[in-house]
Every structure is written in C-alpha cells, then in structure tokens.
Design a protein that fits this description.
Blueprint lengths: L12 H7 L11 H21 L3 H17 L4 H15 L16
Helix pairs in contact: 2-3
C-alpha cells in the first residue's frame, strides 16, 4: 500500500525506510522549494506541539529553526541580537502577561 506524504522530513528518513525493507520516493529540494517546505514544516511542528507538548517535539522545533536560519541565509548572531533587542524593548514572556483588550478611547 502506497501512502503519500509530500512533506519535508529529516535527512536520514529515506535510509531508515529502506533499512526497514520498504521502498520510498523522495527528491532533494532547491532553494525556493526548501524555504516553502520549511515554513510548512514549522506550522506542522507547532500544531503537533500544541496538541501534545513534549521535549522531543520541542527539540524538533529547535532543529527546524536552525535549518530555517540557514536556508533563509540569516545571520545567527543577528538573530540573537534581535532577540536581545526585542526583550529589552518589549520584554519577554516570563511574566505570563495575557492581554485581554485595549480601549482606544474612541
């Protein structure tokens, strides 16, 4: 029985599938394709984490974010700088603030 996935997977998945005695079809994505596939994968992983939070799923998200930084040719140190800057300007999430509404007075 053939099952279609049409999604980005970790590099060793085709080898793991073949070693289990099954066959698979895959391709290597180009630059524009990988960027779209990574965005789709981020949404997929976020949904999985929302439904069942775990350290394993979070580790997948960390790995995915590293790959996104590389694929979009972002500078990791600049990402760290922006993180610090945003934390200084807007704060973090550590205080658990949940905004309910804003009244603009009009």
């Amino acid at each position: 029985m053939k099952v279609d996935y049409n999604k980005l997977v970790r590099d060793k998945i085709p080898e793991i599938i073949k070693n289990s005695g099954r066959a698979c079809e895959y391709k290597i994505l180009g630059k524009s394709e990988i960027q779209d596939a990574l965005k789709d994968k981020l949404l997929e992983k976020a949904e999985v984490f929302m439904n069942k939070p775990s350290e394993d799923e979070l580790s997948d998200i960390y790995e995915l974010l590293d790959t996104i930084v590389e694929a979009f040719e972002y500078e990791p140190l600049h990402i760290d700088y922006l993180k610090i800057q945003n934390k200084e300007n807007k704060g973090s999430y550590s205080e658990k603030v949940f905004l309910i509404s804003v009244d603009d007075g009009q």
